[in-house]
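TL;DR need structure tokens for one chain.
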Amino acid sequence: MSTARRTALVSVVAAAILIALKLTVGLAAHSLGLISEAVHSGTDLVAAILTYFALGVSDRPADTTHQYGHGKAENLAALGEATFLGLASVFIGFRAIERLTGSGHAVHTAWYVFAVIVVVIGFDAMRATVSWRASRVTGSPALASNALHFASDLAGSVAVLVGLLFVRSGYADGDSIAALFVAVLVLAAAARLVQGNVDVLMDRAPLIAEEAARAAIAEVRPPVELRRLRMRQAAGRQFADVVIAVPSAAAVVQGHAMADAVEQTLEQVLPGSDVVVHVEPIVDADLRERVHAAAVAVPEVREIHNLSLVAVDGGTELSLHLKLPGNSTLEEAHEVAERLEAAIMAAVPEIDAVQTHLEPLAEIAAGEVVPGDVPTVERIVQEVTGRAPRAVRFLNTDSGLVAHLTLALDGRSRLDHAHARASEIEERIRLERPDIVDVVVHTEP
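>> reply
TL;DR here they are.
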């Protein structure tokens, strides 16, 4: 049996004993204060029984129909307790007002009445202390509500003692006023229990826990971008759904490591929490555009491609291919690459390092227009696009025969679809005419 259930069982036994004591002495002494405390303890007994069985349900592991576990059974039990407390407070208040308006019996203040009150106060203090300590250890909301309830019992018992002392001193309404005070305590306790447990059952975000989670994620190193955090609680346990963003160039293992770091951090600040982390890539299109703009601003740069962003040790590194004229010397090309790297890092401060791969620019030498196999090209274009090309010409260059053709496509076509058709035409022309070394396709609406 768990610690929480043992504590709840002790509460059941204690509540039964207190009901017997308070009701017996209260009826004998005609003390509405003691009778109201007996009713209060009756709600304790019902609440303790509910808590005992609710803890048995909440301790069950998650299953296919309760995938988040059974922890909310405790909150349902606490809500049931609040209902009993509210009904009891109405009954006690009604009886107290009746006494204060003149009806009822005289209260007897024999020595044994005070003896029972002292014993009851001792019991209430013990139960409140034990339940509070157990709730701190287990994080059980049902035990925490019991501790609050027992603390209100203690205050009510002290009020009854004071009321009986006033009765003994000749003030006959002291007992009824004490009973009315107990009713107010009971109603206040019921209101607190309803509010707290309805919040949990309605999945209201636990603000303190959420603030702690956000602060902890902000301290994760290397840093991550928090895109969404949703939290709920049940049975003293926090459930967190986290969405973080990592650089799109980060490897799968890097993204997994960042998710692990977030889970471990939240476990430290919210022990026993259930954390699910979803990793999304950071869209770096804007960053790529700024890199390209900085690169083409260098006068000697003719072409860059294969831009790759990689997360390394908490920073971002860029690698790219730089094409320069093939007749450039290595020294000239290196000097251009250095100026290119400096320009990119100045324009895009998010990038910590730039690696440049140098390539010769393949330029088509000037050539003369020569006859070619126009019918084959026109047939291929007709089969792929459904219409003949607008223009076809062949150039004889130092590298070999190059075909230039212009396609007329639907202006509403998507760019990726147009590119796919152009690529298909290039591939088919090369396949049927191996003597053509290159195909340059221009598309128009």
